[in-house]
Amino acid sequence: MNPEPHLSIIARTIQLSVAPVFLLTAIGTTLAILIGRLNRIVDRARILEGILPSVTAKAEGEIHAELSALSQRAKLINLAITMGTVCAVLICAMISLMFIGVFLSIDLADVVAALFVGATFVFIGALLTFLRETFIAVKNLRIGMQ
Known about the structure:
By secondary structure, the chain is mostly helical. It has three helices and no strands. The mean pLDDT is 90.
């Protein structure tokens, strides 16, 4: 019994799974950036909520407006993180099914392709949501204004 043909099929499957692994790396990096932004939003909101009791009525209105914008940004970032995580899960499922198909000699090409397309669309959604969050951040940016 020659194990070589089976090993070559496994090696080919590993080669095919490298591209999705690179995609997982990109998704992981994107998630790290999103989490960093969410952390900064939360920190800023905590600072504003801490000074809220000691400000004037005019400043209180400005702080509430900024807190509202921060809340909207946090919701968008949370949605982008959720979509990025779903994308990563779909990619992992795709890689797993590639190996399951090879080991069990099942044709899962359609399922693997559907998972890849689905993951791509979810990742696009995450990026567009992130873009929307950055638009809100820039819109509420006040450099040098007092």
